């Protein structure tokens, strides 16, 4: 596989792999196997419609649950 990356990104990936004592291939494989991260925007998009929440406590509860 050939990935066309800017030189500064390529160097950052190489440096990160070296810091972890891994080859670039090992680092990328490790990254690919990690579970996807939940983004805050995904959490907000999946929350109930604010018009049904009244005082907003459900929003606070859901956000706290996502951060635990």
Walk me through this protein's architecture.
This protein is mostly helical. The protein folds into 2 domains: 1-34, no CATH class; 37-68. 59% of the residues lie in helices and 0% in strands. It has 4 helices and no strands. The chain has helices at 7-19, 24-33, 40-45, 57-67. The model has no long low-confidence stretch (mean pLDDT 81).
Helix-strand layout with pairing:
Blueprint (H helix, E strand, L loop, with lengths): L6 H13 L4 H10 L6 H6 L11 H11 L1
Biggest sheet descriptor: none
- Structural class, by secondary structure, is mainly alpha
Strand content: under 5%
Q: What is the total tally of β strands? A: 0
Number of helices: 4
Q: What integer is the average pLDDT?
A: 81
Rg of Cα set = 19 Å
Low-confidence residue ranges: none
Number of domains: 2
- How would the global form be characterised? elongated
Order of helices and strands: HHHH
The helical percent reads 55-70%
Distance between the termini: 38 Å
Question: What would you say about this model in short?
Answer:
This protein has helices spanning 7-19, 24-33, 40-45, 57-67. The chain has 68 residues and is mostly helical.
């Amino acid at each position: 596989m050939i990935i066309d990356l800017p030189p500064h990104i390529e160097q950052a990936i190489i440096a990160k792999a070296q810091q972890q004592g891994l080859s670039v291939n090992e680092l990328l494989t490790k990254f690919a196997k990690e579970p996807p991260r939940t983004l805050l925007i995904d959490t907000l998009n999946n929350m109930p419609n604010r018009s049904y929440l009244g005082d907003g406590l459900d929003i606070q509860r859901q956000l706290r649950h996502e951060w635990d």
